[in-house]
């Protein structure tokens, strides 16, 4: 009985002890449990991946919708700005036309006033000149009242 024999006996006792304690079953069960757990995790990962794909597709759809809505808003704002610009131009042109008409009316009134003033001044000068000429011609006579009446009547008619 040498050392090899006792090593062989120890090995056999070790195997018997392992079989007696059902270690291969425990190791197999542990490996099976671990494989089941890994399968579940893989399945969960697949489900999460599918859910992530769906969420990604949903977010992309929402982004496209938001971009389209933004384009519509910008187009509407441009249309509104163009309409406001046209309205402002129209109102500005109307304002300029009104102001031009008012200025022309004021100018015409000033011309009429100036013409009337010149006429009145010319009439006064003509009446005074006529009065002086007539007075010089009739310096000695009693026609003074008649002349004064005639001058007043000429003034009325000329003015």
TrEMBL record:
Gene name for this UniProt entry: atpF
Domain of life: Bacteria
Membrane topology type: Single-pass membrane protein
Residue ranges of the TM segments: 6-27
InterPro entries, per database record: ATP_synth_b/b'su_bac/chlpt (IPR002146), ATP_synthase_B_chain (IPR050059)
Organism expressing this protein natively: Jiella pelagia
Ion transport is among the record's keywords: yes
Entry's localization field: Cell inner membrane; Cell membrane
Family: Belongs to the ATPase B chain family.
Pfam family, one: ATP-synt_B
Keyword field: ATP synthesis, Cell membrane, CF(0), Coiled coil, Hydrogen ion transport, Ion transport, Membrane, Transmembrane, Transmembrane helix, Transport
Record carries keyword Membrane: yes
HAMAP family in the cross-refs: ATP_synth_b_bprime (MF_01398)
Coiled coil: 31-105
Name of this chain's protein: ATP synthase subunit b
Subunit structure: F-type ATPases have 2 components, F(1) - the catalytic core - and F(0) - the membrane proton channel. F(1) has five subunits: alpha(3), beta(3), gamma(1), delta(1), epsilon(1). F(0) has three main subunits: a(1), b(2) and c(10-14). The alpha and beta chains form an alternating ring which encloses part of the gamma chain. F(1) is attached to F(0) by a central stalk formed by the gamma and epsilon chains, while a peripheral stalk is formed by the delta and b chains.
CDD domains from the UniProt entry: ATP-synt_Fo_b
Function: F(1)F(0) ATP synthase produces ATP from ADP in the presence of a proton or sodium gradient. F-type ATPases consist of two structural domains, F(1) containing the extramembraneous catalytic core and F(0) containing the membrane proton channel, linked together by a central stalk and a peripheral stalk. During catalysis, ATP synthesis in the catalytic domain of F(1) is coupled via a rotary mechanism of the central stalk subunits to proton translocation.
